């Protein structure tokens, strides 16, 4: 009888231990900031490979954007240093005078990208360039 209780206790403890290992393995972890791919809206702008695309707006008349989910980001913090470094390595320069709050503006050549941090996500937005058209000799914006 005593051996049976010991076996049951050991099985119970083993089960609890396995459950704890399972839960720890499924818990959210910080991004690794090691692998990057081009963004859906601007292939030359890096996004972490771990990021999951959740929403996209393409062919909008004023902008294209994509929203990515990435656990571990905080709206109240700066762009992680490793990510900032990769953005610069890909040739993007921050336009600090245009960056505000959680939105950072980057420029590469004539291309502009806005990166906005949220809690556990971020958005990459590419504003469309306003093209002026000439109608009957007069210059106007669409």
TrEMBL record:
Protein name: Lipoprotein
């Amino acid at each position: 009888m005593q051996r049976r209780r010991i076996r049951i206790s050991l099985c119970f403890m083993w089960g609890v231990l396995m459950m704890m290992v399972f839960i720890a393995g499924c818990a959210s972890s910080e991004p690794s900031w090691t692998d990057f791919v081009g963004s859906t809206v601007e292939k030359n702008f890096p996004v972490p490979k771990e990021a999951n695309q959740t929403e996209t707006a393409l062919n909008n008349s004023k902008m294209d954007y994509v929203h990515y989910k990435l656990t571990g980001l905080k709206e109240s913090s700066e762009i992680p240093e490793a990510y900032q470094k990769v953005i610069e390595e890909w040739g993007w320069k921050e336009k600090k005078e245009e960056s505000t709050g959680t939105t950072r503006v980057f420029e590469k050549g004539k291309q502009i990208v806005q990166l906005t941090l949220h809690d556990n996500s971020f958005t990459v937005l590419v504003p469309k360039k306003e093209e002026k058209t000439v109608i009957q000799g007069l210059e106007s914006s669409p």
